[in-house]
Amino acid sequence: MNQSDGGERLDAIDLLRGLAIFFVLMNHINIRLLGADVLYTRFLPAQLVHFLVWNGQLGVQMFFAVSGFLITSITLRRWGSLRQVSLRDFYRLRFARIAPLLLLLLVILSVLHFAGIHHFVVSPETGGLGRALLAALTFHINVLEAHRGYLPGNWDILWSLSVEEVFYLFFPIACRVLGRSKLFFAILFGLVALGPFGRTLFAQGNEIWQEYSYLGGMEGIALGCLTALAVSQVRLSRRAMWIVGGSGAAIVICSLIFSWQAYVGWLGRTGLNMTVLGVGTCMFIGATTQARWRSPRWLAPLLGIGQYSYEVYLTHMFVVFGFFGMFVAAGKPMHLVPLLFVATILVSGLLGAVVARLYSEPMNRLLRRGAVR
Questions:
Q1: Sign for the pseudo-dihedral over CA of 280, 281, 284, 287
Q2: How many Cα atoms sit within 13 Å of 241 on the Cβ side?
Q3: CB of 189 closer than 8 Å to CB of 229
Q4: Is there a contact between 3 and 70 (Cβ–Cβ < 8 Å)?
Q5: How far apart are alpha carbons 90 and 269 in whole angstroms?
Q6: Helix 337-355 crosses helix 11-35 at what angle (to 10 degrees)?
Q7: Are 29 and 341 in contact (CB under 8 A)?
Q8: In whole angstroms, what is the distance from residue 367 CA to residue 92 CA?
Q9: How many CB atoms lie within 10 A of CB 273?
């Protein structure tokens, strides 16, 4: 969802989204390198490696928390209260933001599938192209993969969109019916409480479902929703802003740096590592939003990527496969690995910005005409 959407941009939001997409990109490049037996991490400190290239899933959790905060904040700003939300306009605005690029992506992926391009063919074992299209359009890519195995990379990333859009299918209905009632809060807190179980007990040993389950992802969205509701009601003192924001930043930083220790330890075994990260992310969001925090200039590249995070997320696998193909064709030279990472991230950010400005944003404006602002 477009953060501004009638309001000012928030540096903290763009920074978090930029960090999230950075870790997703690093993870996806790393997976391709290791799959091609490029053991570039042999001489690097294990802690640094885990921090830089294995935090993609944590990045998505940050996305979810940001998304829940934005959707709730924008709903409150646009309609004044949860009960006043217009179902027609909510779904129309959501369609205008999500559908144009998603539909274009599916068309391109279908063409590449029929052309037999490597990395883009959906195998019969996973259901074939028709089954993948159905799953993408009805937001259950995650369910399909949990039962049939991983889809090609450009399809696989749509699992997170499946989680988000199922949540937002019911969100405005719950707002209209329940408003700020105790039951509404109970549902949100219930999703938070069930999140860890969605990643552990309910997954029943299915490794894909442990990461891609609806409950596991909706926990982060629910945390973001609760944060937006709290921010709309409670005004923190300047001292409290620093304490809450600083503590949230510390939790996020520690969760990312020590992600491996958390994953193999008690937090990971109970599924609470993601919960802790989500809480820290929301603490940072809540405090910095009220403080109108401005990011230092040296973080501008991350803010830029974060501003176009949806476009970068949906298109970055084309860049990953493109540059990785050139890297393999060049003989997989080890000294070019750093350049592969840097070039992929920069070009992915540039592609996302171009797609947003030339396609997504114009289509968004066109489809939104006549809807409430």
A1: negative
A2: 14
A3: no
A4: yes
A5: 38
A6: 130
A7: yes
A8: 8
A9: 25
Task: Give the model confidence (pLDDT) of 134-155 as tens digits.
Answer: 999 999 999 999 999 999 999 9
CA distance 228 to 281: 12
How far is residue 317's CA from residue 24's CA, in Å, rounded to a whole number?
10
Instruction: Render pLDDT for 76-121 as a digit per residue (tens, 0 to 9).
Output: 999 999 999 999 999 999 999 999 999 999 999 999 999 999 999 9
Calpha distance 365→161 (Å, rounded): 21
pTM over 0.90: yes
The CA-atom distances, in angstroms, between 224 and each of 146, 249, 278, 280 are 26, 15, 8, 11
Domain boundaries, the chain: 11-367
pLDDT, residue 356, reads 98
Place of tokens 């998505």: 60
129's CB contacts (< 8 A; 6+ apart) are 110, 113, 114, 122
